[in-house]
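The passage that follows is intended for readers who have already worked through the single-chain material. We present the inputs for a multi-component assembly, then the predicted structure in tokenized form, and finally a short commentary. You are encouraged to pause after the input and sketch how you expect the pieces to fit together before reading on.
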Amino acid sequence: MTADDGPAERDGIVVHLDRLLAERDLTLTELASRVGVTLVNLSVLKNNRARAIRFSTLDALCRELDCQPGDILSYAEPQ
Amino acid sequence: MVGLVRRAVGFDWFDVRALEGLVTAGLVVASVVALMALAGVSSIGLSGARTGTSLAADLDPAKVAPELNQALPAGVDVEALRATVASTPSGLFEHVLVRLQVLPIAVLALVVLILMRRIVRSVAAGDPFVEENVRRLRIIGWLVALSPLLLVIAQISRSELVARSAAGSLALPHITIAFVPILIGGLLLVLAQVFAEGVRLRQDTEGLV
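Having made your guess, compare it with the prediction:
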């Protein structure tokens, strides 16, 4: 699993980081350094390839993006 | 990522390199011993090596010198007389017997050391909790646990060679079974299972952001 594999389709929790980045005109690199997560890991998260997320990461994302967890994550019913 | 883990665990890079060096050195020694065993060396000690023409044998004092124990104080008994027996192995069977004294154990040691080096290398690479290492530990565990069998075969081979030599009628029949390797082999199998749990834990943190 690498960050460069591109976005993945996923049932269940979906990550909307790309939308939030576009809305706030932020690059992934910029956000990664502010949040304290490696660019690779943030890319994995953005592409729906993460298998687990720490609360500390979620804290930092909400802080830097000035949003709620529900803005970053949503739940799609598995087919 | 690997660097973070190493720093968190207090890992000393030098420890792994030293370990790898030790195992490689052991591998070289084991290879030399195996080659010598193949050539017919039947035992190796600090005083030198025995070839197939010289056997170490324990002789029965009752058969060699019955008056020996009578000359000793009460409660003191000579149980065995260690002797060197000159023998000339002839025929394929006897030459095989000569090699069965050391070769099987030497090959086992070689296999174990090769597997050990692969495990140490995976540690050096920063990712030891993989399925292959569980398999390697299991193989090593079984090999070590069954090694007493090879030791018994070695002893039987030596007894048979002594029986065929000039000292045949004087020899003391004597087989020792080592139990510690069975215990250690069992321990390694337990550790392999612990490792399997480690693999599961590692898989859980893969993709953790």
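Commentary: The beta strands of chain A are 12-15, 73-76. The interface with chain B takes residues 1, 37-38, 41-42, 44-45, 49-54, 57 of chain A (CB under 8 Å). How closely did your sketch match?
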